[in-house]
Amino acid sequence: MREKARERCSEQVQDFTKCCKDSGVLMVVKCRKENSALKDCLTSYYKDPAFYEECKMEYLKEREEFRRTGIPTKKRLQKLPTSM
């Protein structure tokens, strides 16, 4: 759920990341505005019932597939090396 929300808030993530890189140690003070914007965006997705249901259905689908095959989704999506 967190990863999907971060993808949808990519603009705020980029702004916050850029601010942190530019500010160094002072990022705690200098990047408050960007941090607040990022938190507001993420929180809006976390509280959205439709987004929650979408993530829940995706999780249940992945869990069902894992129980059926015994292979996690991430491993299943990786290409297997071909032997010659």
Automatic annotation (TrEMBL):
InterPro entries: Cyt_c_biogenesis_Cmc1-like
Pfam families xrefs: Cmc1 (PF08583)
UniProt keywords, alphabetically: Disulfide bond, Mitochondrion
Primary subcellular site in the record, as a coarse category: mitochondrion
Entry keyword annotation includes Mitochondrion: yes
Location within or outside the cell: Mitochondrion
GO cellular component terms, A-Z: mitochondrion
Family: Belongs to the CMC family.
Protein name: COX assembly mitochondrial protein
Lineage of origin: Eukaryota, Metazoa, Chordata, Craniata, Vertebrata
Gene name of the record: CMC1
